[in-house]
Design goal:
By secondary structure, this protein is of the alpha+beta class. The protein folds into 2 domains: 193 residues, no CATH class; 96 residues, Alpha-Beta Plaits (2-Layer Sandwich), CATH 3.30.70. The protein is 70% helix and 7% strand. It contains 10 helices and 4 strands, in the order ααβαβααβαβαααα. Helix 2 runs antiparallel to helix 7, helix 7 packs antiparallel against helix 9 and helix 7 runs parallel beside helix 10. It starts with 21 loop residues before the first helix and ends with a helix.
Length: 329
């Protein structure tokens, strides 16, 4: 048998025989460990012996695994963008005309005592007039007014953990107050954004599942071709007493190597995408006065991807090798 063969020396099958005493049990355990190490190294050398085919397989799997990471990154930043654009936008309460500053402060204290409200800001009619004067086209029209027709406006900032139902109830209660003329709330916009993000999360989950299945099939097909090309050698090993676990062990390690390297490639591609978006995102953040804080993928996820891909590669190799060995046996 060639020295670079994927299977261990002929004496290794004896490691799967039942032990007769403690000494034989120790030898069996040592041989089992030796064969695991030999299988891992031999399968890695076999991948290196055909670099083009191995690189293509790893590249296909890496791209498949990088896609859901990219969509997850995009979805998380869309959520942050929604927050910057006003996902938690304050509720504007317009008081009835003729209400004075004392009544506005009294209503502000009353609303500030509610559990759903984090802060209340009172905007005077003069402040509203100054804001209109800064807008193009309003300055000339405002000069013709004899008095200020704008009412007091209260800006309610709901607490971050407040549910959508609680905010809706808050808006309904404020509208029923006799001193309130109008309430403007972005709750419907927040609900649409939350629903859109929920759909996006489900799409990312489905996409990740489909692409993980595709990566599993790629590994399985690669292992199937490898086993088919060595069917005669495997048949000889089975005839001389090698167990199925002994024969398929190198192929399982091959699946692990494929998955591990493709997972590392997927994580690197995700990091490259983050770097590619860093410049435009920084410019967008400056346009919103630094309110837009875009984040990257968490470190735990980047570290978990290679491990999950290795497990996926092992599973694909395990399923295909078991099916192929049953045919050969």
């Amino acid at each position: 048998m060639p020295p670079e063969d994927i299977h261990a020396p002929v004496r290794a099958p004896a490691s799967d025989a039942p032990p007769r005493n403690e000494h034989s049990h120790g030898r069996r355990l040592g041989s089992w460990q030796e064969h695991h190490g030999w299988s891992a190294a031999s399968s890695l050398r076999r991948l290196a012996s055909r670099p083009l085919g191995s690189l293509l397989t790893i590249a296909v799997m890496g791209l498949a695994l990088a896609l859901p990471l990219a969509f997850y990154l995009l979805l998380g930043n869309v959520q942050k963008l929604g927050e910057a654009l006003g996902q938690s936008q304050a509720i504007s309460v317009f008081m009835q005309p003729g209400q004075n500053a004392q009544q506005a402060q009294m209503l502000a204290r009353q609303l500030g005592d509610r559990a759903e409200v984090a802060a209340v800001t009172v905007k005077t009619p003069q402040q509203g007039m100054d804001e209109l004067a800064k807008m193009q086209g309003f300055s000339g029209a405002l000069q013709t007014l004899d008095d200020n027709p704008l009412p007091y406006v209260l800006q309610l900032q709901p607490k971050a953990e407040t549910s959508a139902a609680a905010i809706e109830q808050l808006v309904a209660d404020v509208r029923d107050m006799h001193s309130v003329e109008l309430v403007q709330d972005s709750g419907s916009w927040r609900q649409r954004l939350d629903a859109l993000l929920g759909v996006g999360n489900r799409v990312v989950l489905i996409l990740a599942s489909l692409l993980a299945l595709a990566a599993l099939l790629v590994v399985g097909n690669t292992v199937r071709v490898d086993i088919a090309s060595r069917s005669e050698e495997i048949s000889v090993l089975l005839l001389v007493g090698a167990s199925s676990a002994f024969v398929r062990r190198p192929y399982l390690y091959a699946g692990i190597w494929y998955g591990l390297f493709s997972g590392i490639l997927a994580a690197l591609l995700a990091v490259l995408i983050e770097f590619a978006l860093a410049g435009p995102v920084a410019q967008l953040s400056r346009a919103y006065d630094g309110k837009l804080q875009v984040g990257g993928l968490p470190l735990w996820l980047l570290l978990a991807v290679p491990l999950a891909a290795a497990a996926l590669g092992w599973l694909g190799a395990r399923l295909v090798s078991a099916w192929q060995l049953r045919r050969l046996g």
